[in-house]
Design a protein that fits this description.
Blueprint lengths: L1 H12 L11 E2 L6 E2 L6 E6 H6 L5 H5 L5 E4 L10 E4 L6 H4 E5 L2 E2 L18 E8 L3 H4 L6 E7 L6 E11 L3 E11 L3 E12 L8 E14 L2 E15 L4 E4 L4 E2 H4 L10 E17 L2 E18 L6 E12 L2 E8 L2 E21 L10 E19 L4 E20 L15 E16 L5 E12 L7 E3 L5 E3 L5 E14 L2 E13 L2 E3 L8 E3 L3 E13 L4 E14 L25 E12 L2 E10 L19 E12 L2 E8 L10 E3 L7 E3 L6 E9 L1
Parallel strand pairs: 6-9
Antiparallel strand pairs: 1-2, 3-8, 4-5, 6-7, 8-9, 10-11, 10-40, 11-12, 12-13, 13-14, 14-17, 15-16, 15-39, 17-18, 18-19, 18-20, 19-21, 20-21, 21-22, 22-23, 23-24, 24-25, 25-28, 26-27, 28-29, 29-32, 30-31, 32-33, 33-34, 34-35, 35-36, 36-37, 37-40, 38-39
Length: 683
């Protein structure tokens, strides 16, 4: 409690990082909207913020923001990295909806977002909307929405940019970006490559991306075409095992070693989108058609009992929507209504070796077809008061089929799961109020209901006898209440937000139970306080800070089969949720073209994954990490030297408890001090 109070006091004292002008327009609300019209905690990370930061990836950049934490497995270009907003723990990536230019990057499986497919050099801004978004987007937005916005093609003129980086562990990264635009037509594209050995054995990562975007000005509207392709080749070092009762501590004795020196995965992705924005008088119509596909292959040696997979995922979506402004009795309204149709097709082949995937032991297909309709109205009650009301209904139709091939070389008594067909329904609502109390203070209050449907990996699993099963869990839902206030004066800003989310039927992997290993958890509650802000001390010196207090606990119930004296989890802390997190960032323009930036992150200890009963004494230790960046501009070129983890902190952000042995756990160590040199050239 003392630490919490000190954090609150420190954040308030330095005018705690969201000092963007509230007149800035964002697109996450499905139509361009000013931040000042949203009764929610919103942060916009600008291009200038990205240039200041020493972050190397999107998750590192996001982790500097209030309420956001990062689970990093390998510390190599965000491979295996997930984002958690407001304390969902291991399911954070399934409860925070990630968008790219308004289209979903969150997948219908547990493979996670392919962050490296969107390099920092190609981003215009990132929009973070906390605790809101379920009415407009539906599934996966319980904690909020993060929208990554890439550079617009419709920029007059011709330009080209080269970006390159060399860093520790044989890291080489490069990007070529070009654009050409007139008042009515624009095109841009990029080529990106990355390779690094990683700091651990069997930790090599290779990534290639290509993008092409066009935009036409068509009368009073615009037509957009977007294409992207990416490929990743990743080696998987596994964990470092610790068991004090037998003197095992690979983390201390061989931190850089690999438990799985033969494991690997590859991933190929492609995306395409077409959208039309047409203005019809004062109304606006958007028609969006998008496709995204990926193929992921993986090999796990498992001590001589190999397992191979070839998973393919295709998604089609169609999302027409309309915004209509009108007035009733002197009250201005901005009414948005639309329909989202989305279909996922997940196909998984499973065998022992890659050679046998041509005749897999099991071929699994899971399909999800969703249809959602929503309406949201923003009412200008007075000049200073805005109200938002919204409602959404959604239907999800599932089908699951499994085919076993007894003639497959990989089949040793293999069997098929019985087929499954089911239709589920869920709904969301939201009500918010924002009032400009004075020219400097703006309080807001909001209440909402959100939901999440089960995904493909959570449907198909094996029971205790290794027989495959399908099981469709109930939709998860959460009720969230939030109140906050923002203060702004000149170039200084601060914000305080209090929130509470009561989660029911949370969808979760339970490795202890017999039968399928996924379950709907007992009720839980996330509540906390978030403070953030910025202080422009002088024309050349900027200071920002954030502090988040998050209390995530189960309210009642048991966790059957858990290792420990009993399986009660009532009042226990949700794993992988730090109670305290603070950041401090400073930027100093030493000379007109010389900038020194620093970023400091402090995190409190966390309960290990799989330790819902909180009986393991070991915790993920608290840590503190400092990053520095010195940048120099010379004509059209910009050179920067970056040091990450300056004090060589030995730390990790993910660890998991054994489901069989009481004192055994595994950790995923992250790199110590690393050095990088970047160069940018703009034409």
């Amino acid at each position: 409690m003392r630490l919490a109070l000190l954090g609150l006091a420190a954040a308030a004292a330095c005018c705690p990082a969201f000092a963007q002008d509230e007149s800035v327009v964002i697109t996450a609300p499905r139509f361009p909207e000013e931040v000042r019209k949203l009764p929610a905690s919103v942060t916009v990370i600008t291009r200038e913020d990205i240039d200041r930061s020493a972050a190397r990836t999107i998750p590192e950049l996001l982790a500097n923001e209030v309420g956001v934490t990062m689970k990093d497995f390998y510390g190599n270009n965000a491979s295996g990295t997930s984002i958690d907003l407001r304390g969902y723990g291991i399911t954070g990536d399934q409860n925070t909806l990630i968008l790219l230019d308004g289209q979903r990057l969150t997948n219908f499986d547990l493979s996670g977002v392919q962050w490296a497919a969107v390099p920092l050099a190609g981003i215009e801004r990132i929009e973070i909307l906390r605790g809101t978004g379920s009415v407009l987007y539906g599934d996966n937005a319980s904690a909020g929405v993060i929208n990554i916005v890439t550079r617009s093609p419709l920029q007059p003129g011709t330009s080209a940019e080269l970006f390159g980086r060399v860093a520790s562990y044989g890291t080489v990264e490069g990007q070529l970006y070009g654009s050409h635009g007139t008042e009515s037509f624009g095109i841009n594209g990029s080529l990106y490559g990355y390779q690094s050995d990683g700091y651990r054995q069997n930790n090599r990562n290779e990534q290639q991306n290509a993008t092409l975007n066009t935009r036409w000005g068509v009368g009073s509207g615009t037509l957009d075409l977007r294409f992207g392709a990416d490929r990743q080749d990743l080696r998987l070092p596994g964990a470092r095992r610790v068991q004090p009762s037998i003197g095992l501590d690979e983390y201390a004795s061989d931190r850089n070693g690999a438990q799985t020196p033969l494991d690997w995965t590859t991933r190929d992705g492609v995306r395409a989108g077409l959208s039309l924005l047409q203005r019809l008088g004062r109304a606006e119509l958007v028609l969006g058609l998008d496709y995204r596909g990926k193929e992921q292959k993986a090999y796990f040696d498992q001590g001589g009992f190999p397992s191979s997979r070839d998973d393919k995922l295709d998604q089609w979506s169609f999302s027409p929507r309309v915004r209509v402004p009108f007035s009733v009795a002197g009250i201005g309204n901005s009414l948005v209504f639309g329909v989202d149709w989305r279909t996922w097709d997940w196909r998984s082949k499973r065998a022992d070796t890659q050679e046998n995937l041509g005749r897999p032991a099991n071929s699994v297909t899971v399909m999800q077809d969703t249809l959602g309709a929503y309406v949201q109205d923003t009412l200008q009650l007075t000049r200073a008061t805005l109200m938002t009301l919204g409602w959404r209904e959604e239907r999800a139709r599932y089908s699951g089929d499994d085919v076993a091939d007894p003639t497959s070389p990989a089949c040793f008594g293999c069997s098929a799961a019985p087929s499954v067909r089911e239709t589920q329904h869920a709904y969301a609502w939201e009500a918010g109020l924002r009032h400009e109390l004075t020219s400097t203070f703006t309080p807001f209050v909001r209440a909402s209901r959100s939901y999440r449907f089960v995904n493909a990996d959570e449907i198909y699993e094996s029971d205790a006898t290794f027989a495959p099963q399908f099981q469709l869990l109930r939709p998860q839902h959460a009720i969230t209440y939030e109140v906050g206030t923002a203060w702004r004066w000149r170039n200084h800003a601060a914000r305080v937000t209090l929130f509470q989310s009561d989660v029911s039927d949370e969808i979760h992997l339970n490795p202890f139970t017999t039968g399928i290993g996924n379950t709907n958890l007992p009720p839980s509650r996330r509540q906390g306080a978030e403070l953030d802000g910025a202080w422009q001390a002088t024309a050349t010196f900027r200071l920002s800070a954030t502090y988040a207090y998050t209390d995530a606990k189960f309210r009642e119930g048991t966790f059957p089969g858990a290792v420990g004296p009993d399986d009660s989890i009532a009042g226990k802390t949700v794993p992988l949720v730090p109670r305290h997190k603070a950041t401090l960032a400073a930027s100093w323009d030493i000379l007109p073209k010389t900038r020194l930036s620093a970023g400091f992150t402090a995190m409190s200890k966390q309960v290990l994954d799989n330790d819902e009963v909180n009986t393991l004494e070991q915790r993920i230790p608290a840590f503190r990490v400092l990053d520095l960046k010195l940048a120099q501009t010379v004509g059209p070129a910009r050179i920067a030297f970056v040091v990450n983890n300056v004090f060589n902190q030995k730390y990790y952000t993910y660890a998991v408890r054994s489901q069989f042995t009481a004192d055994r756990y595994a950790v995923y160590p992250l790199p110590g001090t690393t050095y990088g040199l970047t160069a940018e050239l703009k034409f």
